[in-house]
Amino acid sequence: MKNILEIKDLSLSLNGKKILNHINMEIWEGYVHAIVGPNGAGKSTLASTIMGLEGYRHYTGSIYFKGEDISKLSIDERARLGITFGWQEPARYEGLLIRDFLKAAAGNKNNDFISEQLERVGLDPEEYADRAVDKTLSGGERKKVELASILVMDPALVLLDEPDSGIDVGTLDKMFEVIKEQKKKKRTIVLITHSLAVLKQADHAFLFCNGEILEKAVAKKMIPYFKDKCIPCKHKNIPDKEGVRLE
Question: Cα(144)–Cα(150) distance, rounded to whole angstroms?
Answer without folding.
Answer: 10
